[in-house]
Amino acid sequence: MTTTKIAPELIADHAHSVSARVDSDYKHLGEQLARRNVNIDTLKAEVAKFAVAVPSWGVGTGGTRFARFPGKGEPRNVFDKLQDCGVIQQLVRCTPTVSPHFPWDKVSDYKELRQHAESFGLGFDAVNSNTFSDQKDQPLSYKFGSLTHADAGVRAQAVAHNLECIEIGKQIGSKALTVWIGDGSNFPGQSHFRRQFERYLDSNRQIYAALPADWNMFLEHKMFEPAFYATVIQDWGSSLLAAQSLGEKARCLVDLGHHAPNTNIEMIVARLVHAQKLAGFHFNDSKYGDDDLDSGSINPFQLFLVFNELVDAAQSKAPNFNPAYMLDQSHNVTDPIESLMTSAVTVQRCYAQALLVDRTALTGYQDSNDVLMAAQTLKTAFHTDVTPLLQKIRIEAGGAADPVATYRASGYRAGVAAVRPAAGPSSGIV
User: Fold this and answer.
1) What pTM does this model have?
2) What digits encode the pLDDT tens for the residues 293-305?
3) Distances from the Cα of 346 to the Cαs of 303, 327, 331, 343, 391, in angstroms?
4) Among residues 41, 46, 18, which one has the least CA distance to residue 31?
5) Whole domain around residue 102: which residue ranges?
6) What is the CATH number of the domain that holds 262?
7) Does residue 382 have a pLDDT over 60?
8) Bond before 300 cis per omega within 30 degrees
9) Is residue 361 part of a domain?
């Protein structure tokens, strides 16, 4: 039996209060789409299948290098995190899995952890290793790198941690390991670029060899930070080189905030699909660097364009195309649960809009070099308000028509704040 933290009666009452309006809006949207030869019920069935994972670390308050301002009722451990993730899934109905991060989420009994997740109707997505920060009682430091460190002992320690993550993942039902490292250099001459990359490959070959047959290895790149001069896996090119060197189970993960400003991320999608190396996405938004803002909060059209490529790849049956989706955001000034719910709905919205692209017409415009109409074909889909469709999907699945309003009405945050001790303020960078 699934445990619920928001009273089902509250959700049902809210749904009942808006059902007439939602039905009317859904019917009206259906009439609009019918004129474009789109059956709204067929579209609804397809969109209802969409799922995006929630990161365990995302339900806590984030911060900057200067300070962190803890929120009320922050999760104290992974069990609290799963409870918060359960609330998100209960209301939005498209976040059925959680991506854990180790050693932050380590426990003594992983069978218990899996059962706890299942009690909230949740499963586990990819497991994430952490060799970008030192942990308590860790014998060797990652200050100057981990998988690429000049010291073989440090590299062995980092490899061992990743192997441990695989073993944990097998116990909780995961099927992938995500590897992101902050290794790089802060000064010219600090590191030998080629030897550093070769050490990265050598370390990852040892990890890759331990993957179960049905697992994948997700390699995540990032342009900068914490290394501000050069990063070992700084872009999709380095990631692709590494994935191709490691083997078929190694794939390239794309975080939307890990690129230089104005990077054409949707083209990166197309290139990785072509190479059969697209692992999936960490969804967020970015203004300057890796801001980890809420998905679609700055540039929803870019998010739509990413999904346009993803849907095109799926519909054209691109080989070895099975991307994994996850939200990865830092919530510094908002309630993390509210931000994650809003982002999940935004990502689902862009997926639905991408399904509305008239691909036959688009291909014709592209082949005839009708630039304006090709662009307008995408804009027509993007400007379609699919809100009634998403509300209908959530209501029929037992979720909330308006997740944030229902969440606030439930008093959940005040309730957990009463039992979870307040965290102290951050000391910042000094």
Assistant:
1) 0.96
2) 999 999 999 999 9
3) 9, 11, 16, 5, 12
4) 41
5) 8-417
6) 3.20.20.150
7) yes
8) no
9) yes
